[in-house]
Specification:
Elements (H helix, E strand, L loop, with lengths): L1 H30 L11 H11 L1 H21 L5 E7 L17 E10 L4 H68 L4 H36 L26 H6 L2 H22 L5 E9 L7 E8 L9 H66 L5 H36 L7
Helix pairs in contact: 2-4, 3-4, 4-5, 4-7, 4-9, 7-8, 8-9
Length: 434
Amino acid sequence: MTRLLRIVPTARALLALALTLAVLAPSSRAASPSTPDLERLTLPDARSLMIERNRELQLARNATAGAEADVTIAGARPNPSLTLGAGRIGGARDPDAGPLPKRVDTAVGVSQLFERGRKREIRTEAAQYTANAARREQVDVERQQRVALESAYYDLVLAQEKRLIAIETSGLFDKTIDAARRRVQAGDLSRADLARLNVDALRARNELQNVGLEEAKARVALAYLMGVERDAARIHAAEAWPALAPTPGTIDLDRVIDRRPDVEAAQARLRAADKNRELAQSLRTRDVTAGVQYDRQPTDVVRNGLSFNVSVPLFTRYYFQGEIGRAEAEYDTAQTQLERVRAVALTEISSAAAALAAAADRVQRFREALLAAAEQSADAAEFAYTRGAIGVMDLLDARRQLHAVRIDAATALADYARAYSAWTAATEPPATSP
């Protein structure tokens, strides 16, 4: 009975714990981030996956972590050295001591290197500039990967649009061929015209197959950027084409270029190179190593004693000309690299602006005139063909023209989406930073 009474409180405690976990479990599951739905993948979800799993971005994070660790290494003071020694072993022996030596002199010493010429401070400043450059390079890698991701995403949207157009065109040809066969049986259409329709129908099926391959390649490219290669077959882009944005106005090029992460990284590399140049000059300032040693000599008059020593290098053969020359060359290289990065940034911005303006004009022409005109021409040709007013070749020409215009319109939209993404990445500073 007593044992039963002991078990009951324990059971109650376990039941209360189970109920608590049952209440807390749903909230914990709701708080954990869910994996985006690849079957209906949006562009923000694709960006989130890229930030989390992109390998190039992960390598950039690792490089930043290593550069930050270098700051700690550069600021560390030299450790002291401990010296233990024994001397004059096996000297004069005591006859009563047996095989053991009569005396062993021992010494214990500590030495410390003292850096002069602000070497540690300069080295730390150089490492801090290098770490800052690594951080800005990480932001630039994220910028570049974002452009690549959005380009791959819209490549997939374009492939999906082409597939829909190819499916519609192939279905239209199938219906036309069925109607044409009945007309051939009725004697209203020649077999040569039916053969022409069959040729275009087969071309439509081939195009549908090619578009399927293009769509598969686009999925694989997008999956790599998001780090989900094994699930590439499940990816389906759910977003439509972006709306046309207002034409970009005049921008302050110097200000925009100075705020770009690649330019900021190059500037930080230049400052680090300048500090390394100063560090190379400081090598000519002699460091000092000081030491103190305790000696114990059992049989001498002075059995215990302290000794001090100081060592200074003598620059008799080498005066660090190589280190100084290397640092000067690296500074010149960093300066040239900064000029190159600024020139590349200016070229990228100019090219992005021209591509965006041209793509916007193309989209506007397709939406306002070309697409509507091609659809009207194709509808009129279909109506005239059913009434026997035109021949098969005129019908096929109208269909080919509409098909080409629809493909060109989708391509123009994809070009605009990619151009707008490139323009945004080239002119706007990233929203995130390490």
